[in-house]
Specification:
Helix content is about 55%, strand content about 10%. By secondary structure, it is of the alpha/beta class. Helix 2 crosses helix 3, helix 4 packs across helix 18 and helix 6 crosses helix 8. Strand 1 and strand 2 form a beta hairpin. The protein has 21 helices and 13 strands. The model has no long low-confidence stretch (mean pLDDT about 95). Among the domains are: about 80 residues, Arginyl tRNA synthetase N-terminal domain (Gyrase A, domain 2, 2-Layer Sandwich), CATH 3.30.1360.70; about 90 residues, no CATH class.
């Protein structure tokens, strides 16, 4: 279902060709919302220089060939050559009715691409902390949105499940017992288990020797060591799933793509890079030196693919993942939802993969950079002791605070209902606060602000949806039955109708730009438009039945779009608040 700007752009293309020749039909008319009309086009400004004419003259000539009478009121030329366009209320009403009847609510189905999305990426036997919040939440919103647009999304949870610490962890697991309470810490508080293992490693030479031998056994494929390693992964996976369930993200065990799965490919990666002359030995390490990547004093910065001790690092594994995602998963686009500090590293990995032929020109690879979460002091959010904040603790506090707010605002709710709503609101508030700012920028974590029922917050949008449901309950009606003729006689009705028509275009834009905050901004504007409509245009007590039916239909369409939009962000809209 085309948006109003799509319809106008098509009409302008025809007019440009008719007025100035077919070679001008592809000129972008640059149609944007305007404070003077619904939309404003500045095609004349772009064309004037090429045509050697005054912009206003170009605009007037363009209008002679612009056929929009069925869509717009009489277009007007303003200023130096802008074309102002005001949509006909009846045309907007027809489009709103079509959107409400469309199960996709105007969201297009695009030509499908295979899109692996690399996100979350915690470490085995380590707790997820607040730093994992953004990559998990942003990555999941992008995965949901791209799937809804018709793409084949392959979720890739690149967990840290390999390396020297596992010798220490396996030996500690044996020491405490595989079925012990301490082993269960890997599910509840993994950091406690890890720190206990570290203390043993540093305090007992005998333990440290056994741990080092375990690393050798693990890498050699010793069956018992591999079994214990798998048990560690299983316990940690149970922990990850507990967090993912609380966050309501769509990652499952089938999406695990740990570092270990690429281990057998690493030697071949190095051999191929060396054979192709892309990697060379420098100070005992196998390195890739890329043009334009220099550090202090102009010295080249290496991408180390094999360490001087023969071990492999992140770069080698990352190169193996790209080759796997292109050759085995047949990726068209690969998204890396990873912290912004990793940008240089990833760019060097991408460039190396291009040179090696593992990343063909037709495959797009994008680093969706994730900025830091800050405390109210403007520094990276940490505990008072300086440790990263446990993500599970943060989520529990969000739900507790939401429950306290609900206890004050809705004391009549029973405990079970309040608990359900508090979980939706608390988790939704945390996720929305993260998603509503550009993913590559920092934001300040502030519970009071993110749980507020006013402003650009998750609870504000959830409350808008709950208020619509409440209105239908009060009227003894179902939103699904609100299918009356839409009429847009009042300005708030018209503004709400126009806002609804923007949904499909915004979702498509998020699928192109990988910026969920654009969907957040749209939903906030929609909720504001509905609030104005609700306050100025009585619905259940409308002046006549036709107006009542129209306003009910507008309200139902708004509810559907809010629910769908929040769902694409991974946020639940509770039935009541």
């Amino acid at each position: 279902m085309p948006t109003p700007s799509d319809v106008l752009a098509e009409r302008f293309a025809s007019a440009l060709g008719a007025a100035f020749g077919e070679e001008y039909a592809g000129v972008d008319p640059v149609i944007r919302p305007s404070q003077f009309a619904d939309f404003q086009a500045n095609a004349a400004l772009a064309l004037a220089k090429r045509l050697g004419a005054k912009p206003r003259e170009v605009a007037e000539r363009l209008l002679e060939h612009l056929d929009v009478a069925d869509v717009c009121l009489e277009p007007e030329v303003s200023g130096p050559g802008f074309v102002n366009l005001t949509l006909r209320p009846e045309w907007v009403a027809d489009q709103v009715r079509a959107l409400a009847a469309d199960e996709r609510l105007g969201v297009p189905v695009e030509e499908p691409r295979v899109v692996p999305v690399d996100y979350s990426a915690p470490n085995v036997a380590k707790e997820m902390h607040v730093g994992h919040l953004r990559t998990t939440v942003v990555g999941d919103a992008l995965a949901r949105t791209l799937e809804h647009l018709g793409h084949h999304v392959v979720r890739q949870n690149h967990i840290g499940d390999w390396g020297t610490p596992f010798g220490m962890l396996i030996e500690h697991l044996l020491a405490v017992g595989e079925d012990s309470e301490e082993a269960r810490l890997l599910v509840e508080r993994p950091n406690d288990f890890y720190q206990a293992a570290r203390a043993q490693f540093e305090g007992s030479p005998e333990f440290a020797d056994r741990a080092r031998q375990r690393v050798v056994d693990l890498q050699a494929g010793d069956p018992d060591t591999r079994r214990l390693w798998q048990e560690l992964i299983g316990l940690s996976t149970a922990y990850f799933n507990r967090i993912y369930s609380a966050l309501d993200v769509t990652l499952t065990d089938d999406d695990l793509a740990g570092e270990s799965s690429y281990n057998d490919a690493l030697e071949g990666i190095c051999e191929e890079l060396e054979a192709k002359g892309i990697a060379t030995v420098s100070e005992g390490a196998l390195c890739v030196f890329l043009d334009g990547h220099t550090g202090r004093e102009g010295r080249p910065v290496p991408l180390i693919v094999r360490k001087s001790d023969g071990g492999y690092g992140y770069a080698t594994t990352d190169l193996a993942t790209i080759r796997h995602r292109v050759e085995d998963l047949h990726a068209d686009t690969i998204l890396y939802v990873v912290g912004a500090p990793q940008h240089l590293h990833l760019q060097m990995v991408f460039e190396t993969a291009r040179k090696a032929g593992w990343l063909p020109p037709g495959v797009e690879v994008v680093h969706v950079q994730i900025g830091n979460v800050l405390g109210t002091d403007g520094k990276i959010l940490r505990t008072r002791s300086g440790a990263p904040i446990r993500l599970s603790s943060l989520l529990e506090e969000a739900v507790d605070r939401a429950s306290a707010v609900l206890a004050d605002a809705r004391p009549e709710l029973d405990e079970a209902a309040r608990a359900r709503i508090a979980e939706d609101v608390g988790i939704g508030a945390v996720k929305y606060a993260d998603l509503s700012v550009s993913h590559d920028s920092e934001y300040t974590f502030d519970f009071d602000r993110m749980l507020a029922l006013t402003g650009n917050t998750g609870p504000y949008l959830q409350y808008a949806a709950a208020r619509i449901r409440s209105m239908f309950r009060k009227g003894g009606l179902s939103p699904a039955d609100a299918t009356g003729q839409v009429r847009l006689g009042e300005e708030p009705e018209r503004a709400l109708g126009l806002a609804l028509l923007g949904f499909g275009g915004v979702v498509a834009q998020v699928g192109r730009s990988y910026e969920p905050h654009r969907l957040c901004a749209y939903l906030f504007d929609l909720a504001q438009a509905f609030t104005t409509f609700y306050e100025q245009c009585p619905v259940l007590r409308a002046e006549d039945e036709a107006v009542r039916e129209s306003r009910l239909a507008l309200s139902a369409a708004t509810l559907a779009v809010l629910q769908r939009g929040l769902g694409l962000l991974g946020i639940t809209a509770p039935e009541q608040m």
